[in-house]
């Protein structure tokens, strides 16, 4: 088999906080020495509790987040060596789909402008016909070109977001919880769309989700994260059939099934302790009351 | 705000201009601002129509003992639409329309300069964040330590005479005017920068300039316009206030603030209250108009300016 | 054989001379001052001898003013107004007998000398300092605080003091009326910095309470004897001096004339906006003092500038100025001032009226143009500089001059500068300006006090007041002679001649003799402004009931 | 049998804005007994929250409710302010979706619980109230409760906050608890704990619970009865088992088929499966025409024809497997075809 | 918390020193010679040089700065021997025309400005928060309309116009208020207030506008906040909810107030001029008019000091108002 489309070796990310004159005290270690790879044509599912570093890890794949240490090779290129221009060129081949379609589309741009900007970013131009083809490939009609985000539903917007991801014919799509903001009835539509892309166009996927059922359905392999580390990886069937790490087990058991008998309360709580501790308050929970000094993810 | 409301606010439901024109207070404000503005721009024409000029003294129109304008309403007549200035008999209308020029020139200059700088810096703070944002934040904190008006007064007192005072005023006002807007824009730009669609654009490989230009600026534009509209009346007031304190413009350039401070003794004594009325009304019109218009703009563009200080 | 230096009018022994009313003893006088830094320090004061400073301090000589006569110099602490026997180079004064400070100690010649010496200290700069360059060794003297003495002031005995001048100076008796010549007992000068807040008094009042910047209260000095003092009436029992009030507020209060303000006088300036109100109400206008004469306003032309070096151009400008308009700008003939064509102002001995360039009150445009053509000048462009922070008037004055000159085709560019910068410019040797407006008030009533500082070539540059850069050796010689002349009557005629001699060269355009006005409360008596100085005599003011 | 704790009859909620009045909830009738849990499911905007708030008479500005709501014998819609105040918090309490914004940032956790207590019983001293707060925190499983009462909301993790909110809601032992998506913002593992806790406390206190959720999984593990809302209308109502095993409304069936399940692969023998998605996007009552709101997305509407587009179906009784159970569905079709045929 | 306080203090001192540096560079580097006005009449160059040396204005800017900073902590001496004047620490410079150290001058004027500023601050906070809260609670009502209009006026009308209006109407026309003068609080609290009502009205009219707006918007936000809905759900009455909502307004109000210390000082310059009060602003203007650089620099820096202290207090107050800021 050829080189993996994505290969991360021992990557870590420490977020620094700014304030006062000095540096923040140490910062927060969001990803801690993770190694992982995605083969070409493969869909890797990344699961884990909130704040475990899934999004951070996923964003390191296309350089949106720069790792504090470790190497990331995407499409055979070492991101650290690419430089800013190189990184931008790389992003032709690595597209992203985000959680909230309404938020990830600029409310002041029409669908056409949104799509055109992708080409513009790489100095290219497109024809309307191309754009229409693109929209049709995600199941939308040409009439959507002139619409603003608020003129379309969540599911339609997520299709637009997928179209944007597909615009430059990427090899790898990073999907960060692409369906968790969608209604149940629509969620299935998008998941089906992504699955078709993987099958028909051979696009590789890094699929982040906290919904095990979703991962199970659409991923070839699964990586389970806990507090910045990957605690277990393997083919998804295997992992879900016989989870080895207590955390994975807790996750699997906690996932509500469609129709179990009434909840076995006591049993569950013991299992959880392995994965989640009450006192862990992630920095996420701190409201940002101080003066806004938003951190950049790109340097 | 619900998602629907956000959609409403940010979307292009109706163009901002149309929504603005639907607001009565905003349109009234705009008119109040624009009429004096146009009068100032067309000063030579208007004064020519009136048949006067801003420098000829008409001592014959004054009470020889003390120089109070003869006639009612401070000497209002067909020749002198707003009457004449006490002591010199200079045409008040000409003084005012030319005065609007200098006052508004300074206020506009200062507002444009300070808001432009604030916009650039604020966008940079929002875009780069990190240590740049931290340093810029400190700088703004530092600027907040300056006792604004007092410092301006002090500076205006030591301006070397070679420098044109109008320009110095513009610079000084701009120097103290950029901080709050920069912080507000910075906060807003930071918030925009943190929004998912900006990250999405980054993920498509868009270059920084495209991100700023196409993703961030459209979301900051309204704020910048509103901040500009809000800084304008403040600057007009300060320019007039400095003249009132005797440290404003000098020389024979007509200036609204100077007219006002000149008129003080005349209202103190009740000898010619009209002298204050006309320039006072014009200053009030400009300032109040700009405030109304700015406020309406803020509503229309749905910009929040209160919470970033 | 001493030569009296007194003036034409003999000082009267009778205090209540001519129109002066006798004032009752008692009551409280209120003084409303617009100045915040009022003090009773003499070493750096710039005030005339008829001012409130002299409630507390006496000098060797002083001034006596009358509503209807010229001001005269009279002895104060001294028995006479000084004697010289070498043509004005050495002056001798003798103190009256039995004079005492408020603390009971006798006033001696030593105290006078010490008071003068203090004024040389760098910490006390800023006062009227004519004596500093006149006294031998004055230029290098730095005051008594480092133990040095000024030997040109000789204390012969407790009552006799002799001054040795570097050159003959006929007006010395006037100089010794200035603030620095008040006696200061060295023993009391332990904290020079604040001495002026509660000085040892030689005058009829002593400071009993002093709050810097806000209020001073003066009460009677028991050791002052009325029979030794011919200039102070000392009517009120108590004087309250309120400092740092807003000028307009003071005027308003005086107009309103309520409560204690009925007993008040002030140093507030009345702006033209008030005239109408005052005029229209006799109960107010009766309380207003208007000066018959006052400051000299003129337009100085920088004769060093090529464009103004031709006397015909300067004469043309003299003809062109519309003085009537300027008079109007200053508030008209009644409140603003009198149009003038001479340098010396009424009230200065020797002043004679003449008009070399009579263009009528509004100017003679034709004559002016004629002179310009004669000089072969066309398209003349000149700058006119003026101070902007004194009052708004300067700017209007400049505007009027600009308009006047526009009539004869001279383009004027106005340059308003702040006071300090303006003064710096016109008092420097090579100031870059063509014309400036200026005003001048004499520090003592003599042609010397106006002509010498404004027209002597020694006054060009280095802080001198010769704004026209006028330099005429003949005039310089005449000035030197007049300055030295101890016979002031003779000197007066000499000054009159110099006045005209200068105007022949037309370095300036005399414009106005500016009037000043002052208001007093309704109970105030003896409130008037003499021809010179243009201030009310605060020492004779009384409070009626 | 005693009276139901909650009884809703013909509830309509409408919003008025700019002179236009629009219903967002229409003709809702349901009743709930003590000790039982009714899950309200439906997609975003279907009116779940509005229904919950209508019960407490906590509607946003511009909203008005008609119909009848009876909680523990009290008519809520006609109650006056004082009565309402007495009912709120004591007879019916609420747990909000976002625990962070539901807690005042300025009060510590203890003060919140104490306040909830003292609002209804002024005789409780401050000290006693705080002692009760410690007890309650202990009861909901917060470690070191004596220390925790002094902490502020932002110092708690999401799960702990939700526990605190539950403690606050239950401190007055209400007859009815309305839990509006109490676990949506939480991790799966925490979600399981919270649901278990709610269930446990419900049994202990014998209260009725209205559990609002959009997640079929949550519903399946926590409810006794289920109410499926679509565009503000009751699509289907029935016991948990009926809803899951014999859904009578195509929407209910579609939702079930579209929900990914952990055991999905096992069923299909390890091959990749596709979910059966419901086409289109959820509509709100406002946008709905006169007919069945679900008709535009319904794969079976063609079978019925015109009627679906012109006439809104009323809930009618359907077969049930429970003894004495009630199963209602609002569909013109009497019987659903086999699952494979439901979705297009 | 202690670390936080200490850090804020260090920052404040550092800021003051930097502002002093900028100020002194600017003013002592300027082309004006303070010795000019102290030189007297006549003023030959030698005299002027002497004066300049005595006033220490002939030294370099950097020297001025170090002397100034030294003076702040250790006092400063001008001249030698018996002529020397000492300016005790904290020395903000020495004003020769006034024969007084600037610190004393400031100390004399401070009660006026503080009375003016504090009174106006209290008034504008009470009026601003009060009207803002009322208009938020009764949104769209009469009070709301009135105070929105009032705020708009206050925001736009220049301070001196309001001042003159108040002076003209209440002082001169109605004779209802004294038009000038200051009575110290210790002398007679009633007279003190009576003399300051006019300026207070003017300043608070201008400043209240901002608080009305902030209070109104924040309270409206706050009132629709979930935690207040939750409070109602717990059975709290409207009054209890409103009272609690006001807490949420205090933080932005405090933040705004910190910035308004500057505006208060600036406004009091104008109010002092209009009402002829002798406060810091008047001192500054007199310094400007008399070219007394020591006063100009001293007052400016002292005002900076006041502002920084004001900000510091607001910063330290903030955690008390909002526990979320209380971390570390
Ligand atoms: N820009 C940032 N600055 C500081 N800390 C950050 C930043 N971004 C993320 N973090 C922190 O890093 C940790 C991991 O965050 P990340 O977003 O990768 O988690 P996640 O697994 O995606 O969580 P979720 O499921 O909630 O999306 C979190 O605790 C978060 O608070
Ligand atoms: N304040 C409001 N003004 C106008 N319409 C509103 C308001 N709040 C809710 N609505 C409308 O009422 C309907 C029902 O809203 P509700 O909040 O009950 O939905 P929900 O089922 O709880 O959805 P979600 O799952 O998103 O919480 C929606 O169509 C919504 O647009
Ligand atoms: Mg994430
Ligand atoms: Mg909801």
UniProtKB/TrEMBL annotation, chain A:
One of its GO terms (molecular function) is ATP binding. Residues 269-283 have a biased composition (Basic and acidic residues). Keywords: ATP-binding, Nucleotide-binding, Transport. It comes from the Bacteria. Pfam families: ABC_tran, oligo_HPY. Belongs to the ABC transporter superfamily. Residues 255-299 are annotated as: Disordered. Residues 6-252 form the ABC transporter domain. This is ATP-binding cassette domain-containing protein. InterPro entries: AAA+_ATPase, ABC_transp_ATP-bind, ABC_transporter-like_ATP-bd, Oligopep_ABC_C, P-loop_NTPase.
TrEMBL record, chain B:
Coiled coil: none annotated. Residues 100-294 form the ABC transmembrane type-1 domain. It is a multi-pass membrane protein. Its main location: membrane. PROSITE patterns: ABC_TM1. The chain crosses the membrane at residues 27-49, 104-127, 139-160, 166-185, 220-245, 273-294. It comes from the Bacteria. It is found in: Cell membrane. CDD domains: TM_PBP2 (cd06261). SUPFAM superfamilies: MetI-like. Keywords: Cell membrane, Membrane, Transmembrane, Transmembrane helix, Transport. Pfam families: BPD_transp_1 (PF00528). Belongs to the binding-protein-dependent transport system permease family. This is ABC transporter permease.
TrEMBL record, chain D:
Residues 6-256 form the ABC transporter domain. It is a peripheral membrane protein. Keywords: ATP-binding, Cell membrane, Membrane, Nucleotide-binding, Transport. It holds the Pfam family oligo_HPY. Its main location: membrane. The keyword Cytoplasm does not apply. Belongs to the ABC transporter superfamily. This is ABC transporter ATP-binding protein. It comes from Streptosporangium jomthongense.
From TrEMBL, chain E:
It comes from the Bacteria. The chain crosses the membrane at residues 12-30, 114-137, 149-172, 192-212, 249-271, 293-317. It holds the Pfam family BPD_transp_1_N. It is found in: Cell membrane. Coiled coil: none annotated. CDD domains: TM_PBP2. Its main location: membrane. It is a multi-pass membrane protein. Keywords: Cell membrane, Membrane, Transmembrane, Transmembrane helix, Transport. The keyword Membrane applies. Residues 110-318 form the ABC transmembrane type-1 domain. Belongs to the binding-protein-dependent transport system permease family. This is ABC transporter permease.
């Amino acid at each position: 088999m050829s080189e993996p489309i994505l290969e991360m070796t021992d990557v870590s990310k420490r977020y620094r906080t700014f304030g006062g004159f000095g540096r923040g005290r140490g910062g927060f270690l969001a990803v801690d020495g993770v190694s992982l790879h995605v083969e070409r044509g493969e869909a890797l599912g990344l699961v884990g509790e909130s704040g475990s570093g899934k999004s951070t890890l996923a964003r390191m794949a296309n350089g949106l987040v720069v790792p504090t240490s470790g190497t990331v090779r995407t499409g055979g290129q070492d991101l650290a060596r690419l430089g800013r221009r190189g990184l931008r060129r790389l992003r032709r081949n690595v597209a992203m789909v985000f959680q909230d379609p309404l938020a990830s589309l600029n409310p002041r741009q029409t669908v056409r402008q949104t799509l055109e900007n992708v080409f513009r970013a790489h100095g290219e131009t497109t024809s309307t016909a191309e754009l229409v083809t693109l929209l049709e490939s995600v199941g939308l009609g040409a009439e959507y070109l002139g619409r603003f985000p608020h003129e379309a539903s969540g599911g339609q917007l997520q299709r637009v977001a997928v179209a944007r991801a597909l615009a430059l014919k990427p090899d790898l799509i990073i999907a960060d919880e692409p369906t968790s903001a969608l209604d149940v009835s629509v969620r299935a539509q998008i998941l089906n769309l992504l699955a078709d892309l993987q099958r028909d166009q051979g696009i590789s996927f890094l699929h982040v989700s906290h919904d095990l059922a979703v991962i199970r359905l659409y991923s070839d392999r699964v990586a389970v994260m806990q507090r910045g580390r990957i605690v277990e990886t393997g083919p998804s069937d295997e992992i879900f059939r016989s989870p080895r790490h207590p955390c994975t087990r807790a996750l699997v058991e906690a996932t509500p099934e469609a129709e179990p008998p009434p909840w076995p309360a006591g049993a569950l709580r013991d299992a959880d302790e392995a994965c989640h501790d009450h006192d862990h308050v992630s920095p996420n929970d701190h409201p940002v009351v101080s003066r806004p000094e938003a951190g950049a993810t790109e340097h | 705000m619900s998602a629907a409301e956000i959609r409403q606010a940010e979307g292009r439901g109706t163009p901002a201009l149309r929504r603005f024109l639907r607001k009565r207070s905003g349109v009234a404000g705009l008119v109040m601002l624009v009429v004096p503005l146009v009068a100032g721009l067309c000063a030579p024409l208007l004064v020519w129509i009136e048949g006067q000029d801003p420098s000829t003294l008409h001592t014959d129109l004054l009470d020889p003992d003390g120089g109070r304008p003869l006639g009612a309403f401070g000497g209002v007549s067909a020749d002198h639409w707003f009457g004449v200035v006490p002591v010199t008999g200079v045409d008040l209308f000409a003084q005012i329309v030319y005065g609007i020029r200098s006052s508004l020139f300074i206020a506009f200059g200062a507002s444009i300069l300070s808001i432009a700088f604030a916009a650039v810096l604020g966008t940079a703070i929002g875009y780069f964040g990190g240590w740049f944002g931290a340093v810029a934040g400190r700088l703004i904190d530092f600027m907040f330590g300056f006792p604004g008006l007092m410092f301006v007064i002090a500076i205006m007192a030591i301006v070397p005479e070679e420098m044109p005072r109008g320009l110095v005023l513009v610079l000084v006002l701009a120097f103290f005017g950029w901080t709050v807007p920069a912080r507000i824009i910075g906060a807003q730009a930071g918030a925009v920068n943190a929004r998912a669609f900006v990250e999405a654009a980054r993920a498509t490989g868009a270059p920084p300039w495209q991100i700023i230009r196409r993703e961030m600026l459209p979301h900051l534009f309204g704020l910048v316009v509103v901040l500009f509209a809000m800084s304008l009346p403040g600057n007009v007031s300060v320019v007039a206030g400095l003249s009132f304190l005797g440290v404003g413009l000098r020389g024979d350039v007509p200036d609204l603030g100077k007219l006002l401070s000149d008129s003080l003794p005349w209202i103190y004594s009740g000898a010619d209250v009209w002298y204050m009325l006309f320039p006072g009304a014009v200053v009030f019109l400009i300032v109040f108009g700009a405030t109304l218009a700015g406020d309406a703009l803020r509503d229309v563009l749905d910009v929040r300016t209160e919470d970033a200080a | 054989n001493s030569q009296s230096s007194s003036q034409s009018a003999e000082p009267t022994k009778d205090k209540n001379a001519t129109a002066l009313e006798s004032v009752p003893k008692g009551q409280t006088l209120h003084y409303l001052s617009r100045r915040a830094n009022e003090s009773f320090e003499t070493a750096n004061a710039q005030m005339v001898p008829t001012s409130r400073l002299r409630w507390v301090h006496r000098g060797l000589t002083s001034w006596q003013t009358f509503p209807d006569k010229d001001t005269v110099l009279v002895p104060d602490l001294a028995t006479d107004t000084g004697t010289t026997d070498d043509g004005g180079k050495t002056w001798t004064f003798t103190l009256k007998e039995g004079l005492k400070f408020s603390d009971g100690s006798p006033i001696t010649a030593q105290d006078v000398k010490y008071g003068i010496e203090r004024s040389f200290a760098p910490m006390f700069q800023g006062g009227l300092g004519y004596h500093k360059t006149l006294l031998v060794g004055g230029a290098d003297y730095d005051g008594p605080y480092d133990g040095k003495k000024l030997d040109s002031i000789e204390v012969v005995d407790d009552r006799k003091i002799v001054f040795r001048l570097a050159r003959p100076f006929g007006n010395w008796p006037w100089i010794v009326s200035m603030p620095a010549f008040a006696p200061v007992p060295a023993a009391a000068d332990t904290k020079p910095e604040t001495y002026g807040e509660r000085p040892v008094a030689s005058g009829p009042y002593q400071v009993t309470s002093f709050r810097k910047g806000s209020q001073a209260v003066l009460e009677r000095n028991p050791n002052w004897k009325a029979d030794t003092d011919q200039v102070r009436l000392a009517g009120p029992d108590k004087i309250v001096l309120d400092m740092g009030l807003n000028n307009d507020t003071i005027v308003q209060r005086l107009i309103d004339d309520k409560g204690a303000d009925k007993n008040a006088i002030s140093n507030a300036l009345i702006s033209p906006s008030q005239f109408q109100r005052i005029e229209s109400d006799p109960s107010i206008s009766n309380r207003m003092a208007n000066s018959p004469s006052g400051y000299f306003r003129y337009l100085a032309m920088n004769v060093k500038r090529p464009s103004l070096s031709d006397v015909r151009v300067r004469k043309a400008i003299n003809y062109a100025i519309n003085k009537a308009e300027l008079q109007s700008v200053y508030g008209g003939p009644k409140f603003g001032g009198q149009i003038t064509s001479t340098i010396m102002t009424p009230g200065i001995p020797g002043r004679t009226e003449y008009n070399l360039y009579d263009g009528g009150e509004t100017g003679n445009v034709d004559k002016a143009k004629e002179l310009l053509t004669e000089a072969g000048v066309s398209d003349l462009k000149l700058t006119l500089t003026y101070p902007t922070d004194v009052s708004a008037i300067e700017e209007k004055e400049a505007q009027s001059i600009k308009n006047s000159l526009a009539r004869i085709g001279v383009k004027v560019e106005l340059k308003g500068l702040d006071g300090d910068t303006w003064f710096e410019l016109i008092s420097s040797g090579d100031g870059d300006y063509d014309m400036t407006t200026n005003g001048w008030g004499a520090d003592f009533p003599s042609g010397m006090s106006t002509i010498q500082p404004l027209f002597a070539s020694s006054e060009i540059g280095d802080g001198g007041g010769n704004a026209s850069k006028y330099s005429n050796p003949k005039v310089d010689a005449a000035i030197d002679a007049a300055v030295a002349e101890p016979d002031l009557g003779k000197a007066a005629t000499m000054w009159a001649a110099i006045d005209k001699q200068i105007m022949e060269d037309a370095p300036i355009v005399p414009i106005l003799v500016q009037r000043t006005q002052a208001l007093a409360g309704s109970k105030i008596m003896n409130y008037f402004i003499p021809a010179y100085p243009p201030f009310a005599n605060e020492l004779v003011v009384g409070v009626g009931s | 049998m005693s009276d139901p704790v909650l009884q809703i009859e013909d509830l309509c909620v409408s919003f008025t804005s700019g002179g236009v009045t629009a219903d967002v909830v229409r003709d809702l009738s349901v009743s709930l007994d003590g000790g039982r849990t009714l899950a309200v499911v439906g997609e975003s905007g279907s009116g779940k929250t509005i229904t919950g708030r209508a019960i407490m008479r906590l509607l946003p500005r511009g909203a008005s409710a008609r119909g009848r709501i009876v909680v523990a014998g009290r008519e809520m819609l006609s109650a006056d302010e004082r009565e309402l105040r007495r009912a709120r918090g004591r007879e019916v309490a609420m747990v909000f979706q976002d625990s962070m914004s539901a807690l005042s940032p300025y009060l510590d956790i203890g003060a919140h619980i104490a306040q909830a207590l003292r609002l209804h019983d002024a005789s409780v001293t401050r000290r006693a109230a705080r002692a009760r707060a410690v007890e309650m925190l202990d009861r909901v499983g917060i470690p070191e409760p004596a220390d925790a009462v002094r902490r502020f909301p932002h110092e708690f993790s999401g799960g702990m906050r939700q526990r605190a909110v539950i403690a606050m809601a239950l401190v007055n032992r209400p007859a009815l608890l309305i839990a509006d998506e109490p676990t949506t913002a939480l991790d799966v593992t925490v979600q399981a704990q919270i649901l278990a806790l709610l269930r446990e406390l419900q049994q202990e206190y014998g209260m009725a619970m209205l559990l609002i959720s959009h997640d079929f999984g949550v519903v399946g593990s926590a409810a006794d009865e289920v109410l499926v809302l679509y565009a503000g209308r009751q699509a289907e109502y029935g016991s948990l088992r009926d809803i899951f095993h014999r859904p009578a409304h195509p929407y209910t069936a579609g939702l079930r088929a579209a929900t990914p399940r952990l055991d999905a692969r096992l069923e299909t023998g390890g091959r990749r499966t596709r979910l059966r998605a419901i086409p289109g996007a959820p509509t709100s009552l406002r946008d709905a025409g006169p007919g069945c709101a679900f008709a535009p997305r319904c794969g079976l509407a063609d079978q019925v024809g015109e009627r679906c587009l012109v006439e809104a179906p009323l809930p009618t009784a359907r077969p049930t497997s429970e003894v004495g159970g009630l199963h209602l569905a609002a569909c013109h079709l009497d019987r659903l075809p086999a699952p494979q045929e439901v979705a297009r | 918390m202690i670390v936080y306080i200490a850090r804020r203090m260090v920052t404040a001192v550092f800021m003051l020193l930097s502002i002093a540096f900028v100020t002194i560079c600017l003013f002592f580097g300027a082309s004006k010679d303070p010795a000019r006005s102290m030189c007297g009449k006549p003023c030959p160059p030698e005299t002027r040089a002497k004066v300049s040396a005595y006033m220490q204005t002939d030294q370099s800017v950097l020297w001025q700065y170090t002397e100034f900073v030294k003076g702040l902590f250790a006092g400063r001496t001008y001249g030698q021997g018996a002529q020397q004047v000492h300016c005790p620490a904290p020395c903000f410079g020495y004003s020769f025309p006034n024969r007084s150290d600037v610190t004393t001058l400031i100390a004399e004027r401070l009660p006026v400005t503080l009375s003016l500023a504090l009174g106006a601050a209290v008034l504008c906070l009470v009026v601003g928060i009060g009207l803002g809260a009322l208009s938020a609670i009764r949104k769209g009502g009469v009070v709301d309309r009135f105070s929105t209009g009032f705020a708009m006026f206050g925001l736009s009308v220049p301070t001196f116009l309001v001042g003159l209006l108040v002076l003209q109407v209440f002082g001169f026309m109605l004779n209802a208020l004294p038009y000038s003068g200051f009575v110290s609080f210790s002398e007679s609290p009633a007279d003190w207030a009576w003399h300051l009502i006019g300026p207070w009205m003017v300043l608070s009219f201008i400043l209240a506008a901002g608080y009305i707006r902030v209070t109104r918007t924040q309270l409206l936000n706050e009132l629709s906040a979930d935690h207040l809905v939750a409070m109602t759900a717990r059975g709290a009455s409207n009054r209890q909810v409103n009272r609690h909502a006001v807490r949420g307004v205090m933080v932005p109000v405090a933040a705004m107030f910190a910035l308004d210390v500057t505006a208060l000082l600036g406004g009091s310059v104008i109010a002092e001029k209009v009402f002829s009060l002798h406060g810091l602003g008047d001192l500054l203007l007199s310094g400007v008019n008399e070219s007394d650089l020591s006063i100009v620099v001293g007052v400016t820096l002292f005002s900076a000091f006041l502002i920084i202290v004001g900000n510091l207090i607001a910063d330290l107050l903030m955690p008390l108002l909002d526990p979320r800021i209380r971390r570390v």
